[in-house]
Amino acid sequence: MTVFIPQNELSDENIAAAGEILRRGGLVVFPTETVYGLGANALDGEAAKKIYAAKGRPSDNPLIVHIASPKDAEDIACTNEAYYKLAAAFMPGPLTVILPKREVIPSATSGGLDTVGVRCPSHPVAHRLILSAGVPIAAPSANLSGKPSPTKAEHIRADLEGKVDMILDGGEAAVGVESTIVKLDADGTATLLRPGGITHEMLQRVLGRVDIASAVTEALPKDARPLSPGMKYRHYAPRAPLTLLDGDDARRIAYCQKAPADTLLLVFDEETDLFAGHKVVPLGKKADKQSQLHRLFAALIEADAEDPRQILAPLPATDGLSLALYNRLIRAAAHHIKKL
Ligand code: TXA
Ligand code: MG
């Protein structure tokens, strides 16, 4: 049975009960500032395996480990100077740092890798839960494998009912896409594996050079072994085919207006009145990338729920916060771009 704790009942008592569930090897869905997480005790391999079962996640796809304070990384990973520079600039916050793991992290948690992703979330409920559990919490996004990451508890309640012990409703996630992931190697190389709310430019301001893994923007060749195993799996995909339109606003709008009536259009908030014959789902304000990130997964979920024949959306740029939009949308579209 799954206990659902609404937002107005996140008392110390209920958080303590959630912490107890985690310590005993159970599963708790909790809010973070990026997306909801499906948590288990990161030090307990059997508990971590339950996450893979509940999500239908391939077991070679490692879990991110959530800690209460940046220095707690030392218990689970081999930290270095670059880690502490990143921690000073961006933690707590939407950043995951990949470091060599210590033995306490079981291979079920690390997906068989000798590294571990460390993340110190800024969401107060996540923070209280980690402290209450008294152990680091392994948590992927709380969606079923292949579905968009959930930014509201209601997105997942039906999917996870009966599969987890407790769901903590913390309201809508602020950032709306998953944390930025950066890998730090022993030789000092830093590589961006997944763009998010902390941008490539922000990382470079702190670390100097940061490479971008090719899988962030490119389709992976068949049988590739990407730096981040999650990149090889289909993700964030609505059922209908999604095409990204590469052209200026005027051309994109004209193209959308001429699309068959059973096409669903993802458009900026300012444009929603321009498409009388079509279903439209707003994608956030045109000039406000933060609002677009915030809307992205909810927009994909809403689009999917309308069950259209096809979906059209603007192709994002690849600088600043746009890179995170680009990376998520290009995968939802299976790299299908229409040049206008
Ligand atoms: O914002 C987030 O990061 C959310 C919240 C819940 O914290 N979590 C999240 O986890 O997005 P997940 O499992 O959905 O995505 C983690 C990604 C996967 O693509 C995984 O392959 C990669 O991070 N990853 C995790 N540990 C890794 C490691 N040691 N080396 C390389 N990639 C890793
Ligand atoms: Mg995920």
Write a structural description.
This protein is α/β, with parallel strands linked by helices. The protein is built from 11 helices and 16 strands. It has helices at residues 12-23, 45-55, 73-76, 81-90, 107-110, 124-133, 154-160, 200-207, 249-257, 289-305, 322-332; strands spanning 3-5, 28-30, 37-41, 64-66, 95-100, 115-119, 137-138, 166-168, 180-184, 190-194, 211-212, 242-246, 263-267, 279-282, 310-314, 337-339. Helix 8 links the parallel strand 10 (190-194) and strand 11 (211-212). Helix 1 (12-23) crosses helix 6 and helix 10 (289-305) packs parallel to helix 11. The radius of gyration is 20 Å and the shape is globular. The termini are far apart. The structure holds threonylcarbamoyladenylate (TXA) and magnesium ion. Magnesium ion binds next to loops.
Helices and strands in order, then pairings?
Blueprint: E1 3-5, H1 12-23, E2 28-30, E3 37-41, H2 45-55, E4 64-66, H3 73-76, H4 81-90, E5 95-100, H5 107-110, E6 115-119, H6 124-133, E7 137-138, H7 154-160, E8 166-168, E9 180-184, E10 190-194, H8 200-207, E11 211-212, E12 242-246, H9 249-257, E13 263-267, E14 279-282, H10 289-305, E15 310-314, H11 322-332, E16 337-339
Parallel strand pairs: 1-8, 2-8, 4-6, 5-9, 10-11, 12-15, 12-16, 13-14, 13-15
Antiparallel strand pairs: 2-3, 3-7, 4-7, 5-6, 9-10
